[in-house]
Write a structure and sequence with these properties.
Distance between the termini: 93 Å
Shape: rod-shaped
Order of helices and strands: HHHHHH
């Protein structure tokens, strides 16, 4: 197998692993939003930002490598289709390629679904926070601060 194809497969494996980490973190972060645990929310947000940055960097590298493979294919040094490449690979490498592509397809669908669920959770959390903020804004002017009396003082001495 050509070195460029091997590098491309390694980049795909890294992308697959990073997407799996992102899916796991999106799934784990639900409890922080349900319980409105700000510290945990911030930890998950930071982790997800780092994973997304890593995915973007991998996508850039994959795009460069794809362009390099395209140039090699146009010059006749590489197969032009996946089926031609598959025919040239040894059985273990061909199996690895198919497992990798199938895994990427599955995890991308899973991350897409988890992202939609996470988006809905954020929307509902925002609504809950707005309700609490409205309650606090209106509650603060409704009731005065309760009076406290010193131990042994008569209640009538507090009322004027």
């Amino acid at each position: 197998m050509k070195r460029e194809v091997q590098q491309y497969l390694e980049l795909l494996e890294k992308r697959l692993a990073t997407l799996r980490l992102l899916a796991a973190d999106l799934d784990e972060s639900r409890s922080a939003y349900v319980t409105l645990d700000l510290r945990l929310m911030h930890q998950h947000i930071a982790r997800q930002e780092n994973l997304c940055t890593e995915i973007r960097m991998l996508d850039t590298e994959l795009q460069r490598m794809k362009e390099k493979l395209r140039v090699l294919a146009l010059s006749g040094e590489m197969p032009t289709t996946l089926s031609e490449l598959d025919a040239q690979l040894d059985p273990a490498s061909a199996r690895q390629l198919h497992l990798l592509l199938g895994g990427l397809k599955a995890i991308q669908a899973d991350v897409r679904r988890l992202s939609r669920v996470h988006s809905e959770l954020l929307r509902r959390s925002r609504r809950s926070v707005n309700v609490l903020m409205n309650f606090l804004a209106h509650y603060s002017g409704t009731y005065p601060t309760p009076l406290t009396r010193a131990k042994g003082a008569a209640f009538s001495a507090m009322v004027k």
